Amino acid sequence: PEEQYNPDPHKKTLVILGTGWGSVALLKKLDTENYNVVVVSPRNYFLFTPLLPSCTTGNIEHRSIMEPVRQILRHKKAAVKYYEAEATHIDAERKVIKISDSSEIKGVINETEVPYDMLVIGVGAENATFGIPGVREHSCFLKEIRDAQAIRTKIMDCVETAAFKDQASDEIDRLLHMVVVGGGPTGVEFAGELRDFFDEDIKKLIPDIADRFKVTLVEALPNVLPMFSKQLIDYTESTFKEEHIEIKTKTMVKKVTDKTIEADVTGPDGKKEKITIPYGLLVWATGNALRPIVKDLMSQIPAQKDSRRGLAVNEYLVVQGARDIWAVGDCAVAGYAPTAQVASQEGAFLARLFNNMAKTESLESEIHELSSTLNIKPGNAAEVTQEIEGCERQLRRIKDIKPFHYSHQGSLAYIGSDRAVADVSWFNGNLAFGGNLTYYFWRSAYLSMCFSTRNRVLVALDWVKAKIYGRDVSRE
Ligand code: FAD
Ligand code: NAD
């Protein structure tokens, strides 16, 4: 039988919020026997987000990129407590968090408090809507598994409704117009996957609507993928042209209704023009916004007053102005982009830090104990002094923890028709490449990054399955 969680009153309680990239990287490397570890997250699994766009078309099945948190915790040396709940308030004065069961089934008790000695916040971010009217009501986001499932269902609903007997011609065009707002990597990867789905599967199965399907990517800035090098932006834009994905840059969406988007387009002369675009499916991918729990904590801490994008942290990821609270990933502002790469390196850093802190404390108490035996048994003085010196040497070595340093491995994005773009760090330089070979690099890189061997096998099988049998177009 698995070991049960048994909190030790002599150990500190470390509470970790979230089961995303940051928190799971911390859990993976943390020596759990040093603390009473409690994990709180409304999502009882880790999600491998880089392959989420592939789930929207069924190229990958959603369970293949999910890893149950219970499975992850099972392998830890000392048992960890997990609560499927949302943290709704952090009381930094009393050092307690309020948690609430936000799932459908609730028990008699569905709200309570969890005390902490140390707290790590890894709650990620919400979808940004900038308060644009109609976005929440009418568009799909692409952040969680349920978003990918909703998109998959909606794509097929639009297609089947367009193919309905005697469907009006304008309505066919609207229903088959798939609009993506936001030309960051999420929007670009989704647009590419969508076009593939249509070209490789839907077209064959429903040929009568084949020439009406259209994908448009809308971006407020002058180009898509701003974090990639110029050469790769050009390559992506020309590939999209070949794939018949229309890119509308300098187009800022201002309003969304159930069937149209309204946007301001800035022309070459700087003049603004209003346009209305009818759509069947709208996917909103305009980046991140703060979660309520993060906003709430920031409002309690005067040192966070000027921080806009998240919890400002120092070089050891300590939340500025707070005691015993650390933050990782998309909810923390450490001077890096909100990516999985950054979040997982931050999580792994905190694990090293906490492992060291625990070791330091145990060495210090060992030195204290040895010093006291010196007075009781003076005969062993030389031996004990030697032991104390050994402990002190170890202590000096591990106490010297360097601040967090992010090492950028590069950026990768899939752009459709078996092509990808990559900006990779190479011996202090940068290497930019794109095309079909890059796609195989993209595939192997993501496969190797999957959480577990089980995930890796499932993803590889999904790719083979989709290649042989095509994607499944049944609408769930
Ligand atoms: P998340 O991974 O979002 O995890 C947050 C966790 O906190 C979740 O478990 C959530 O349920 C939980 N939570 C939320 N609210 C609460 C609460 N109140 N209390 C407790 N728990 C809470 N980055 C890359 O580097 N490469 C990529 O290829 C890439 N592809 C991406 C593709 C898509 C479609 C998306 C959406 C993002 C992609 N990213 C990629 C970005 C990457 O996913 C994020 O930067 C990363 O997930 C951030 O990790 P995190 O731990 O901060 O948050
Ligand atoms: P993003 O912030 O990178 O891009 C959002 C885009 O939406 C911006 O270019 C912005 O100009 C545009 N936008 C905002 N408001 C708009 C409006 N009203 N009308 C039109 N356009 C508007 O967001 P993302 O793509 O979701 O990425 C979020 C984070 O996750 C980023 O850090 C990204 O690097 C990371 N990510 C990485 C990968 C990858 O490496 N393959 C994939 C997905 C996400």
TrEMBL record:
One GO molecular-function entry: NADH dehydrogenase (quinone) (non-electrogenic) activity
Keywords attached to this entry: FAD, Flavoprotein, NAD, Oxidoreductase, Transit peptide
Enumerate the catalysed reactions: a quinone + NADH + H(+) = a quinol + NAD(+); a ubiquinone + NADH + H(+) = a ubiquinol + NAD(+)
The entry's cellular-component GO terms read: mitochondrion
The record places domain FAD/NAD(P)-binding at: 13-347
User: Which EC number(s) are documented for this chain?
Assistant: 1.6.5.9
EC class (word): oxidoreductase
Q: Where is the External alternative NADH-ubiquinone oxidoreductase-like C-terminal domain?
A: 408-472
Q: Does the keyword Repressor apply?
A: no
Instruction: Please give the family membership noted in the entry.
Output: Belongs to the NADH dehydrogenase family.
Protein name per Swiss-Prot or TrEMBL: NADH:ubiquinone reductase (non-electrogenic)
Query: Which species is this record about?
Result: Pseudomassariella vexata
Q: Which residues of the full protein are shown?
A: 110 to 585 of 585
